[in-house]
Amino acid sequence: MLTTVELKKIPIFSCLNDANLLWLAQQAADVHLEAGEYLIHEGEPTPFFVVMEGTTEVLKDVMGRQTEISEHHRGGFFGELAILMATAAPASVRAKTACHLARLDPQHLQELIRRSPECSALILQTLNERVQVVQKYILNLPSSRVQIIGSKFDGDCREIRTFLSMNRIPYDWVDRDRRTRVAPSDPTCHVAGLSVVVDHSFCVTHPPTVRKVAEALGFQTAPHQQSYDVVIIGGGPAGLAAAVYGASEGLSVLLVERKAPGGQAGTSSRIENYLGFPNGISGDDLSQRAFRQAAKFGAEVVLTREVHEIIPEADGEYTVRLDGGDKIDTKTIIVATGVEWRKLDAKGVDRFIGRGVLYGAARAEAPTVAGKNVFIIGAGNSAGQTALFFANYASSVTMLVRGEDLNRSMSQYLIDQIALVPRIRVETETEVVSAHGEEYLNAIDTRKKADPVVRRAADALFVMIGADAKTNWLPAHLQRENGYLRTGREVSHQPGRAADRAPFLLETNLPGFFCVGDVRYNSIKRVSSSVGEGSMAIAFVHQYLSLS
What we know:
Helix content is about 25%, strand content about 25%. The protein is built from twelve helices and 31 strands. Strand 25 (about 440-450) and strand 26 (about 455) form a beta hairpin. Helix 8 (about 235-250) runs parallel beside helix 9, helix 8 crosses helix 12 (about 525-545) and helix 10 packs parallel to helix 11. The mean pLDDT is about 90.
């Protein structure tokens, strides 16, 4: 417990009388931290801290990089800005050395201000100074970390923009089809086709790829160890949940994701029915929170890598072979690869993939549809969220639905929101017959029931008509149902398994080989269900490991 003598020696408290010092000593928490421990995380609510001994550092996430911007020494205080302005912490604070601090809850800071005019004046003066510093700091920040010059029809350009968007890395994109005479910020990067410059100085070697950009930005793209307790394949909600719970419970965890964290859920503009977020949360925000949480507990998350093969070994473990030839060993596997959009069976569509026709939709596509006529095929929540998002940019958004209405496949809150947006038109019992254009899509033919085919001008067609599980790369003797992996009671027999043990609930017919999320047979296709399965799988991993 802090004493009145200790508190009296700190400048901010030196003006307090004995009664107020006694009150403060009873309210303040006595906090001791080792170097490297966090007091405040950016974006979260914060208490009020006063440094009694030691040094803390203020860290700001600047475009995906953690940057030290200031320090607090003995007698310094922080946290008042977020509390008094009723906002989240604008930066993180970490102990730079061993620290001794006094911590006050927000209500006690407000009571301190009420009790002491001298403390109030000092705190409010410091608050005003810090607001001015923040304003100057923001004005000097660059607007982006990455400059991209390339065509919107370039597949690599689109993949890079999507990767940056899902990882919340600000970027400037110049469409080469519209502005042919534009120079990159690094003159050495002036090449025909696609060029990418990172941090205004580093030219990504030609031809740029997502992996090269990820490495330039400092993302991990290769495993750091040879052996793990569990390897998780897929970084959607299920895989991220498994990584968080596995690492937090002491397992050595490697998560391999071929694109960016979040999976299909990461591309959602707003998820409004996820527990704990009454105002909704975007898919990339949810994914990035989970990504940071997994890293905080020590999970390795390797991006832009694919698993090419999983080899069961005689000792019960598995060898995982990545693209590029890297091999790692693991005691258990969790497959969380999700599903891929089902292909549209319509004449001419394949010719325009990436040139007006896209499967799924990412927020990075917003600039490409500005002022355009957009068509979306699908009637699920993903299609509804996409329509609402693109309606903020496109001239018109038309949803083409094969069924009689949206009620059977879409959440009611989305149906209600769509009905309120004049730019969105829903056409039921309608299908696309064919796609037309020369180099790029410019028209589609649609048909409603037995009515004649109608040709319509179309600048973009987003296909979101259900999904299929692509699992042909997994071991051949895994039990499947139309590509989806059988687990638990769905496993019909148990080759190679001890006769006295049935598979765990989320375990396949291979011992120690688990499956979660959308790729699992008979799973519930919801973000919250996937998160639950990911966390449950770790409990079964512990049970499996205890058997040996």
